[in-house]
Amino acid sequence: MLTINRYKCCYCGACVGACPTAALELVETWLEVSEECKECGICTKICPVGALEVKA
Amino acid sequence: MSVQCDLVVVGAGPGGSMTAKTAAAAGLNVVLLEKRQEIGDPVRCAEGVGRRALCEMVKPDPRWIASEVKGARIFAPDGTSIVMSEDKGGSEVGYVLERKVFDRALAMDAARAGAKVMVKTRALGLLRRDGVPCGVSAMHMGEPLQIEASLIVGADGVESKVGRWAGIDTALKPKDIHCCAQFLVQDQSIDDEYCDFFFGNAKAPGGYVWAFPKGDKLANVGIGVQGSKSGSGMPLRLLKEFMKSRFPNGKVLEMVTGGDPSSGVIESATADGVMLVGDAAHQTDPITGGGILNAMKAGIIAGEVAARAVSGGDVRKAGLKEYEDRWRAEIGRHIARSYDYKEFFVKLSDNDLNQLIGSLKNEDISKMDLRGMLRVLFRLNPKLLWELRHLVI
User: Fold this and answer.
1) Nearest chain B residue to A8, by CA
2) Does domain B2-39+100-172+264-338 have CATH number 3.50.50.60?
3) Which residues neighbour B112 within 8 Å (Cβ) at sequence distance 6 or greater?
4) Min Cα separation B288/chain A (Å)
5) Does residue B42 have a cis bond before it (omega within 30 degrees)?
6) A11, B20, B32, B378: least CB-packed within 10 angstroms?
7) What's the pLDDT band for B93 if we cut at 50, 70, 90?
8) Residues B109-143 pLDDT 10s
């Protein structure tokens, strides 16, 4: 499951642009994850501050 | 609730606002949407911009110019530096902007030209009639809203959804996005006259570190790392390391992060009823990361084409070909060339970078543009740059 550390997230949207399934959406300061997420982990590597993690 | 207009522009950054302003001035009924409650904030930008090209599009206003720089300094991994002058040294230096004020000023220009601006309004999807997009469904303050429009412009940035809804795959591969972090730093050692660029594979893998002065000993100190070479939180960690070595006593007044498209030209920036502008169309320069001017230029073209397409009644992809042709001629060719440079640059070792930058140490490059400099580099380092010969000659 993709988890978001909301205390770290700087809501920049870099992850949204890199998501291959368009599963992420940035609503002002709130990052939303839809059911389209395949837990590929690309966004976790793209995040400039390390706020995203795929947990088993 | 529903709203009717000729053109709906999604995103009120420089690209969207220039589109809205141009189209409204040409007589279209325009709605400009911004999903945030404030235009221009939070910033995701190093704010450096070429003075001349900017002034061709908008009248400079001291309220959004943070500082004016003389030139750029490039630092090799071994610390060797070279200086390029502002008038020739590439288009990415000149002014350092205050984007919060700048973006709002451009949106105000669009409003003055007649566009209706709606903040805190998020596009949720495309409306369609007979399969052809005819507006966007949106959410404004938690309430659904339908905006019917003959034509839609997606200027919705790196996180663009309009393109994906219209069938254009705008997802960026890790190697084609630069992951960025930036501090607004106050430090007595900041040089207010130059934009500095620091290279090195340990410092910024596949990218560079920058320090762009904003006046009064303030600077945007930031880093861009190629996504494929990045890892969880790497940009922020490397930026902190750079701060320790370069500005150990620097005070951080603001923190900014973001993703910068570096994919080169997109296959298509148009679909039936839809045009993409700016970061949404990957119109950033892949080697410098600069995107403001390209977005504004594309926005002006999109606004002009929108006016003709709507009044002519043909908003299908074929009817929007003029936009595709003109942005490719005006900025696309340059972006494609920069992409080739980037693909080469990201492979260079620190020794290569030291050799290249060091070879210019005794050359007078102060009056050269990027192309002129490349020609000199090629003459001095033919073996290393052999792959780029088609771009130099």
Assistant:
1) B233
2) yes
3) none
4) 18
5) yes
6) B378
7) low
8) 999 999 999 999 999 999 999 999 999 999 999 99
